[in-house]
């Protein structure tokens, strides 16, 4: 929808900065509410002591694995840089 | 920016943990939804402002189509390797990794059809993945490259982590990220039951 609004020039150009600020505020709000849901989730907090370390290792290893593969493939395909 | 993001996340966690006013707890769901909607509006607005977007999409290397699959394979491999470190069976580790960051869905499927403890582990792992994604995307974008910066978000790059990618990379990468997140989100409800099926047949 935001895409359409910008495309059709429904908003004056001076608004683009405001949209950015609003977007940023929304991001902060979103993260707060996500954090709240996580903190208030008893299932999550009760599992934390026993499974926390495992989860930490696994989450980091999945991220590393995926970042590495994308990096590796893009690098192999585009060596000139 | 990263600091503010982490600050608000941490503040939310603390509030959720220690103060739990009934009224507010009910408002949080809609708050998440609306702020996400506004955010995606802002991202869409940003993309729409780019006049030669069409050309940029055409210029995208076809290889970008493979990005979500690389992320999927990389995640599974990473999970299995991480599983070796924490002594988790290969299949179980792959199952946890197949959440691709979409914690609610993968954890529910695993809890209901496979194992409760593993479901809890999948929940935690994928929550952590999302939180780390917020932290690591800016770093990876700066140090490693724009396309690899899509990877930490996994399935979440179509919504919650998309703005972070948009802020730290460029329009083209944002589009690839959205596409990638969509594909991975479709893959989660396919991969997770599939791996469970495999586990139940062969173990």
State the distance separating the first and last CA atoms of chain B: 47 Å
The most extensive interface between chains reads: A-B, 59 and 84 residues
Count of discrete domains of chain A: 2
Oligomerization state: heterodimer
Q: What is the structure about, briefly put?
A:
Chain A is mostly helical.
Characterize the structure shown.
The complex is a heterodimer of chains A (81) and B (203). Chain A is mainly alpha-helical. Chain A folds into 2 domains: 1-40; 49-81. Chain A has 3 helices and no strands. Chain A has helices at 2-7, 15-40, 42-77. The longest helix of chain A is centred in the last third of the chain and has 36 residues, at 42-77. In chain A, 38% of the residues are buried. The mean pLDDT of chain A is 71. Chain B has 9 helices and no strands. Chain B has 203 residues and is mainly α. Chain B has one domain (2-202). The model of chain B has no long low-confidence stretch (mean pLDDT 82). At the A-B interface, helix 1, helix 2 and helix 3 of A face helix 1, helix 2, helix 4, helix 5 and helix 7 of B.
Question: Which key features would you list for this structure?
Answer:
heterodimer; A: 81 residues; mainly alpha; 2 domains; B: 203 residues; 77% helix; 0% strand; globular
Write the layout of secondary structure elements.
The complex is a heterodimer of chains A (81) and B (203).
Chain A: H1 2-7, H2 15-40, H3 42-77
Chain B: H1 2-18, H2 22-49, H3 53-59, H4 67-85, H5 90-97, H6 103-113, H7 116-143, H8 162-168, H9 171-202
Helix pairs in contact in B: 4-5, 4-9, 5-7, 5-9, 6-7, 6-9, 7-8, 8-9
């Amino acid at each position: 929808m935001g895409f359409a609004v910008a495309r059709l020039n429904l908003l004056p150009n001076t608004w683009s900065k405001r949209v950015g600020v609003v977007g940023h505020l929304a991001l902060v709000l979103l993260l707060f509410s996500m954090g709240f849901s996580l903190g208030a989730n008893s299932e999550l907090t009760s599992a934390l002591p026993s499974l926390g370390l495992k989860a930490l290792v696994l989450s980091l290893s999945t991220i590393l694995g995926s970042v590495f593969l994308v990096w590796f493939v893009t690098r192999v395909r585009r060596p000139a840089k | 920016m990263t600091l503010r993001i982490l600050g608000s996340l941490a503040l939310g966690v603390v509030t959720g943990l220690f103060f739990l006013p009934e009224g507010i707890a009910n408002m949080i769901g809609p708050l998440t939804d609306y702020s996400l909607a506004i955010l995606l509006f802002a991202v869409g607005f940003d993309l729409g402002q780019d006049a030669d977007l069409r050309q940029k999409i055409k210029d995208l290397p076809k290889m970008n189509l493979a990005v979500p699959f690389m992320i999927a394979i990389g995640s599974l491999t990473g999970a299995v390797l991480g599983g070796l470190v924490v002594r988790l069976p290969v299949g179980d580790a792959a199952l946890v990794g197949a959440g691709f960051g979409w914690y609610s869905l993968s954890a529910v499927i695993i809890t209901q059809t496979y194992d409760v403890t593993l479901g809890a582990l999948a929940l935690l792992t994928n929550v952590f993945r999302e939180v780390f994604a917020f932290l690591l995307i800016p770093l990876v974008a700066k140090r490693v490259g724009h396309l690899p910066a899509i990877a930490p978000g996994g399935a979440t790059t179509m919504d919650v982590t998309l703005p972070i990618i948009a802020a730290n990379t460029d329009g083209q990468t944002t589009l690839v990220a959205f596409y990638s997140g969509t594909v991975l989100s479709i893959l989660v409800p396919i991969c997770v039951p599939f791996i469970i099926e495999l586990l139940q047949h062969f173990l």
